[in-house]
Amino acid sequence: MAPSPTLDDLRAATCSDGAPSARNLLVTVFGDALLPHGDDTSISVRALSRLLGAFGVNERLVRTSLTRLVNDGLLTTTSAGRRSFYRVAPQARDLFRQADHRIYRGTPDEWDGSWTIVVIDGSEGTARRRARLRQELAWAGLGVVAPNVMASPIVDAEAAARVVGHVGGFTNVLVSRSSVIEGDGTLGADELAHRVAALEEIAGRYARFIGRYEGYLAGDLDELAPELAFKLRTLLVAEFRRVALADPQLPARLLPADWIGARARRLAAAIYAAVTASSEEFLIAIADPKLGSAATMPDRFGDSHMSGVVVDGDGARHRS
Fold first, then answer.
1. Is the CB of residue 25 less than 8 Å from the CB of residue 238?
2. What are the extents of the domains in the chain?
3. In the list 91, 154, 165, 174, which could disulfide-bond 119, CB 3.0-4.6 Å?
4. What are the helix (H) ranges across the chain?
5. Alpha-carbon distance 106 to 266, whole Å?
6. Backbone dihedral region of 102: left (phi > 0), alpha (psi from -120 to 50 degrees) or beta?
7. 114-179: which CATH number, 1.10.260.40, 3.30.70.100, 3.30.70.240, 3.90.1700.10?
8. How far apart are CA 216 and CA 203, in angstroms?
9. 66 contacts 75 by C-beta, under 8 angstroms
10. pLDDT, tens digit, 9 for 90 and up, residues 196-237
């Protein structure tokens, strides 16, 4: 691939200069690259350090970040001799899968008009635990309607209830799925959508994402070296992930026309499709031998990446 300012920026991106934090990158690697190879896929500290070496992340920073992720219940560790291996904790797999759905799938086109409502008893538990529950519900896609009241048109009630159970320590959280009755003095769907989603702020974040990444489509991404392809894939997902998980992803009928989030998702999908095969080569070369084949990779971003992308008979993807 010919040199370009965009690729120069990619090569220069480090955790101390424009790239996401080591923690964010590690969560991205586990969720995007490792977990699709199997729930029990584990990896050594040394291998993770090599995967993130292009971001200026050394082994000491990897160890520190991994310890915090274990303490947060997102990862678990096992030992083999003097080496430690890390994988997604069983109790966190559902959270990773919920995040996957929001990052790679987005909002379905159809919506039945129902809302999931969660009401947290303000007298139950500690303020810290209530704050943690609100945070995890927000990660799952619910937005704030009022103090201790959260809602979403797309997150199902069972998923919200699982978040309550995961946080634990509550007995009186109300979780319901029902229609919103509109009338004089009631909170209608449009106003509810306005409360749960700060669309202007989210649109600005999507615009910044597009501004940073749209230049990559001008080059032939298929020719990126595997290590650089892995860096671009990880950086792309880490940054898109932060916006997608902050976006309640309202149904189309509650969004402005020509919603910029759809454009950002198409851009992310096109770049992801172009670099995945090469990035998997780097992952498999660095990770431990028991890592599964790239053939087990799910179809990330569904059909949204197919515009402008050709899939060969052997499954390889390239832009047309």
1. yes
2. 1-106+198-320, 114-179
3. 174
4. 5-12, 22-28, 45-51, 59-71, 93-100, 127-140, 157-167, 189-196, 199-213, 226-246, 260-286
5. 11
6. alpha
7. 3.30.70.240
8. 21
9. yes
10. 888 899 999 999 999 999 999 887 888 889 999 999 999 999
Q: Are 104 and 300 in contact (CB under 8 A)?
A: yes
CATH code at 1-106+198-320? 1.10.10.10
Smallest Cα–Cα separation from 291: which of 33, 90, 113?
33
C-alpha closest to that of 272 among 209, 206, 212, 217: 217
Alpha-carbon gap, residue 153 to 113, rounded angstroms? 7
- Contact (Cβ atoms closer than 8 angstroms) between residue 28 and residue 241: yes
Is there a contact between 125 and 170 (Cβ–Cβ < 8 Å)? yes
**Rounded CA gap, 221 and 240, in Å?**
18
Residue 153 has φ and ψ, to the nearest 5°, of: -85, -15
> DSSP labels for 48-95?
HHHHTGGGT--HHHHHHHHHHHHHTTSEEEEEETTEEEEEE-GGGHHH
Neighbouring residues of 183: CB distance < 8 A, sequence distance ≥ 6 = none
DSSP string, 197-241: --HHHHHHHHHHHHHHHGGGGGS-GGGS-HHHHHHHHHHHHHHHH
Give the model confidence (pLDDT) of 79-89 as tens digits: 887 889 999 99
